[in-house]
Amino acid sequence: MTTASEKTANTPLLEVRDAVKVYGGGFLSGGRRVHALREVSLSLDATPARITAVAGESGSGKSTLAGAVLGFVQLDAGHVLFEGQDVAAMSRNQRFNYRRSVQAIFQDPYAVFNPFFHTDHLFNLVMRRFGIAKGRKAARARIVEALETVGLRSDDVLGKHPHQLSGGQRQRIMIARACMMAPKLIVADEPVSMVDASLRSTILDIMLRLRDDNNISFLYITHDLSTAYQICDDIHIFYQGAQVESGPVDAVLGNAKHPYTQLLIASIPEPDPTRGWGTQLPPDDENNDRDIINGCPFYPRCPKRMEQCVAHLPARVSLDDTGHQVACHLFVK
Amino acid sequence: MRGITKGYLIKRLTMLVLTVWLGLTLMFIIPRLAPGDPVAAMVSRLSAQAGRVEQSEQMIQAWQERFGLDAPMYVQYFRYLGNSFRFRLGYSMAYFPTTVEEMVMRAMPWTLGLLTIATLMSFTVGIAIGALIGWRPTPRVVRTLLPVSLCFTSIPPFMLGILLIYVFAFGFRVLPFAGAYARGVSPAFSWAFVSSVIQHGTLPAAAVVLTSMGHWALGMRAMMITNAGEDYMVLAQAKGLRPGRVFWMYGVRNAILPQVTALALSIGVIAGGSIIVEYIFTYPGMGYLLYQGIVNNDYPLIQGVVFVLICGVAVAVFIIDLLYPFIDPRITYERG
Amino acid sequence: MKEVDLSIHQDTPPPRRPRDYAWLNGKLIAGAALLLAVLLFVLLGRLFWDVTLARVASCPLNLPPVGFDAPGPGFEPSQSAHPLGTESSGRDMLALLITGTPNSLLIGIIAAAIGIVVGTMLGMTAGFLGGWVDAVIRICSDAVITIPSLAVLIVISSYVSEIDIKSMGLLLALFAWPGATRVIRAQVLSLRERGYVQMARLSGASTPEILICELLPNLLPFLAATFTASVSGNILAATGLEALGLGPSRVPTLGMTIFYAIRGAAILRGMWWWWGLPILMLMIIFIGLFLIAIGLDELVNPRLRSGGDA
Amino acid sequence: MSNRTTAAAVCEVRNLTVHYDVSATPVVAANEVSFDVYEGETLGLVGESGCGKSTTAMAMLRLLQTPGRVAGGSVNIAGVDIMRLRPAALRDFRWRNIALIPQGAMNALNPVMRIEKQLADAIAAHADTGGRQALRARIGELLEMVGLPADVRRLYPHELSGGMKQRVCVAMAVALNPPLVIADEPTSALDVVVQRLVAQSLIRIKETLGIAMVLIGHDMGLMAQLTDRVAVMYAGRIMEIAPTDILFKAPLHPYTQQLIDSVPSIRVKKPLRVFPGGPPDLRNLPPGCPFEPRCPKAITICRGETPALKACGEKQYAACHVPNTNRNNI
Prior knowledge:
The complex is a heterotetramer of chains A (333), B (336), C (310) and D (330). Chain A has helices at residues 3-10, 62-70, 92-101, 120-130, 135-149, 154-157, 167-180, 197-214, 225-231, 249-254, 259-267, 308-311; strands spanning 14-23, 34-44, 51-55, 77-82, 85-86, 102-105, 185-189, 217-222, 234-239, 242-248, 317-318, 325-326. Chain A has 333 residues and is an alpha/beta fold. In chain A, strands 6-7-8-3-9-10-12-11 form an eight-stranded mixed β-sheet, with helices on both faces. Chain A has a four-stranded antiparallel β-sheet with strand order 2-1-4-5, with helices on one face. In chain A, strand 9 (234-239) and strand 10 form a beta hairpin. The longest helix of chain A is centred in the middle third of the chain and has 18 residues, at 197-214. Chain A starts with a helix and ends in a 7-residue tail after the last strand. Chain B has two domains: 36-85, no CATH class; 100-327, MetI-like fold (Orthogonal Bundle). In chain B, helix 2 packs antiparallel against helix 3 (56-67), helix 5 (100-133) crosses helix 8 and helix 10 packs antiparallel against helix 12. Chain B is globular. The mean pLDDT of chain B is 85. Chain D has 330 residues and is of the alpha/beta class. Chain D folds into two domains: 9-227, P-loop containing nucleotide triphosphate hydrolases (Rossmann fold, 3-Layer(aba) Sandwich), CATH 3.40.50.300; 240-330, no CATH class. Chain D has helices at residues 53-60, 87-93, 115-124, 131-145, 162-173, 192-209, 220-226, 244-249, 254-261, 300-304, and strands spanning 9-20, 27-38, 42-46, 68-77, 80-81, 98-101, 180-184, 212-217, 229-234, 237-243, 310-311, 317-318. The longest helix of chain D is centred in the middle third of the chain and has 18 residues, at 192-209. The mean pLDDT of chain D is 89. The chains are: A alpha/beta (333), B mainly alpha (336), C mainly alpha (310), D alpha/beta (330).
């Protein structure tokens, strides 16, 4: 390892510090307040590239976190740091660099295309702004190269309207677009939840190759623990805006400690008729509209709840030296 | 939480007050922006007229008091707002010493009656036609014939009014062409009077109804078609419900919601259109009163009529807004 | 070929190509043809007809159109020099139509154009920025929509002794923006959550760039539909004012002709051509605009086509 | 999972063919689909998007909307061919004999009607409700059966969570005790924990009422947990049909194999297997076996001849020229 990379290795690539986001409750909007992020902290190392999963159900705040990392969502408190720089307080130059280094893939591979333009528009937009290649020819070569990385032939997809392409082609174009900029981080917001089984492995495979060959880190936002288990290195389990359990994926999913993680894992239907669903029945979902403000948000559904759970949010406790942390009063000494 | 919540009520009330205030302020600003100081011109015209009018002094005084022309602008403004909210609209210049309130009160019932009936009719008939055209199981014959009834859509109501007068009042001479009731009949709750009112109201109402129902029909048709693809429509059919029930409770009931919103939005336009219809038919309502004001340069009358029109429309919109939560349970829903 | 949305019952929606048959929409074509005919009439008329005949006392009075009998005693028979007849002040109806139609159209177009530009800017700002800016713009436009604009315009016109075509258009534009604001705001609200807006942002585009380069092209059909509706609404308001005698009086307009006809008791004297011809012309314009508006509506919302009339 | 041998068929689908008339040559969305559903069993209908599973379900209810139409075949439920019923009889037949749990839980309930009224609607259309009290009691009973409190009946759909809405749909489907219920991706829009809850109520009504069910889905995991038999569809055809335990242990069709292999596990890490190609384009199907372009085992005959569904072992049928028999070691 050279000294230069040592320096970057010390500062994390991405760091989220005590991020808080609350929706609603304003004067005009009224309605109840939704805690989308409750003091969330996580960090991604620069090298080697890793895939970090943020997993949770709908309403867990995982998409808000993605939005905050991409600069779409303003935090109410806390910071998002990219290579040590606060995203909210960047200079023009830093912001340019950040835009180039942090890219995204979204859930819906259709909506990301402006229906008015050809698919080329997406590439041209980036080309022009970031000056990735000089001249038409070089630009074209760059695009073709990026498309090849994701297994697409440029003749099949360029110069077409998005509706003329299949879902798999569209999603791969998105990845190619992100790759072309040679980013350091790609935020993948549910990239496989709207594609068929056969395409799912194709896209996950591309993500793995980009991590290994191009040294691109991923923040993989998902509701699907199984795909996270298969491709991720680290995982953070979210529940209603709180990180309930995090650490290396084998530790968290193989040896789940938080009752919520355990419930999630037990609820996954196994593609094996001989292995039943287990006996742990989830509590009913309508008991959960009680909004716990200070305590553990999982309290209303938790099978192991205790008195102190309502009182205050449990701090994250490290279980071992691998980084496996859990936020549950069961483990607070 | 059902029906109207406090927050919703406050929002709609704010809107009502705001609309009326905006209208009043416009009425206040317009004469002061007009070229050549029309207020001064008005006063001079007033003095010229005073030769003919006995209580001229009193009239000019009342006029100046109302507008408080020598006071600072903000004093004038607040005095004006105060007077308006107490429904003191001043004296008519052409019919002194009749007050504008009196004249408006005399004209209002006619407009209110004509407009309410015409609007409700065009809305319900239009909705019914649109619902039938947009409903797949409607017999093909009906779906082909019904759109014919919409042929007057997009034509301004007053133009249709002229045509109707020409055909029915001048040509066939079956219906009267002017006024609200026959000259010989005195206003009383008698058959002669009521039938006369209905006869006189038919053509103006027809002019409004025939020209506006097409818009409701088109909006309704679009929503019925959009609705037909909704999952709850498929489920209703799967449940084996009678077609009538699917049509009303699942189709019409949902498709009508956007039309009610559209109704609230277009009341102002409908009221504007009916002003001119009344003028064409010399119907003794607000529209005709307004025309008289224009002809006589009777500015207090014009402003008074327009102020009352603005209030009336704002109140109508407010009422529709208050009814809305009862037909759409989602509107005031807030969790927690 | 009929375009249908299979997505409800088939698992993959087939490609939808709204642009492929944009110009095959019958209503759109019919509407455009009507308006084109009106324009052609005006242009040819200016070339081949003496438009000074639209002045007062340039012709004999009260002539019926060629081929029609006089409506009663006291009328002269029709003359071939005045094929559409003349009215009570001695103006030639054909010349009136030729000169009045473009004026009426112009007022509507000026007002609608200003309204659409202002409305688009406000609607985009409101929809994209959200927050209190949106609240203020929304509340204001809703309040202005509620106010019966024609009534306020009557007040204004009554204070203005003389007005020309352009000022009339400007005056109408005062109330022409809220409709467009509402439509555009609603569209932007739904479009701004689309992935491609986020994509453009990731590609480093600024907010104005996103609004103009990404959103505006997709709003075009909505703008076209709103514009058509607005032209129609403004011509209606203008003719309404003119029919009350509040329009421009130095240049002929169709509404002013109707005003004179009403004042001249044309209906009761049986002079149907006096009010009938300008109304016919306006009806053609309104029907043309209306057809274009519903044609555009079907373009924006393809389901409407396959639905009811199928 | 019981292997019924003597159970009678509640529903017999024979050669069901559905066309979508979107161009000169119709798109065949379901092609000669035949299967039986036996009393009390759950039959899974699984496949990727565009495979015709939802189309088949809708055709079974005669709810296809234009341009879709049934071009041939029959669906016999309780001895009546639903395709031959006249409109009035069809109306009466639906829900009493075949009910639907729809796909979009979010939008399947009428937003302006209370839950109670929507449940009552279904009952009152077909049976004597026995008065207001009896009806209310019945509705409470139905809601309880799917684990919802009785006061849910007073609410509007927007006041319920997705899982609750879907369970209301389940309660509605069994209101008249129909012999057959079609569940069209009943949990596809739900979170995994809620999905488990809804699945639980499906299992419960199946066990207590003995209702036969056709479960449409794309999730092989859910199929393994909820069904007794599974039919795998591809490009409008049934590729394989077999009892669930056999199908998962020894799939015959290469496509079934791929479907099972592509489900990521949460217990064992295995290298990702990437399968070439995407779902078929129904407008432009290859001659022969529709799966041939993506099939790792394709041979010459696959390109020319469409394989028919044939028995390849007890209760197991596959439409393949080269079924995977070497794994068939049971």
